[in-house]
């Protein structure tokens, strides 16, 4: 059973996929979207769901540090509902506070990635961290 992790932003969606056993997450790609123009990249998400035989989707929830939910949480939940309605897959949500900060730290400290290159991969790494957190929490 493979699980897809999504880091949903207003301009991009980072995508990660688990291994078949649900132990590890691997960042796959970044899908360009445009919330303002109602372009959500769902065709590409569907292709990835089919290619990787995904049976569940996990969407990151960017809660505020005080655990309240702002407009980005609402946007992420709307995206999750679109995924559920279109692909008839279960959608779960994972608190993603600080995943982008952690992703950037990892890219700087461990991979010494330049600022320009970080911008191109950070959402994919954040999706990987969201999915890995979900996998770790559900295997205990």
Automatic annotation (TrEMBL):
InterPro entries listed in its UniProt record: RNaseH-like_sf, YqgF, YqgF/RNaseH-like_dom, YqgF/RNaseH-like_dom_sf
Residue ranges constituting the YqgF/RNase H-like domain according to the UniProt record: 1-103
GO biological process, one term: rRNA 5'-end processing
Top-level lineage group: Bacteria
GO molecular-function term, one example from the UniProt record: hydrolase activity, acting on ester bonds
Key words of the record: Cytoplasm, Hydrolase, Nuclease, Ribosome biogenesis
Compartments (UniProt record): Cytoplasm
Enzyme class: hydrolase
Enzyme nomenclature, EC number: 3.1.-.-
Major location (coarse): cytoplasm
SUPFAM superfamilies: Ribonuclease H-like
Gene3D superfamilies xref list: YqgF/RNase H-like domain
Matching Pfam families: RuvX
One Gene Ontology cellular component annotation held by this UniProt entry: cytosol
Record function comment: Could be a nuclease involved in processing of the 5'-end of pre-16S rRNA.
Entry's family note: Belongs to the YqgF HJR family.
Protein name as annotated: Putative pre-16S rRNA nuclease
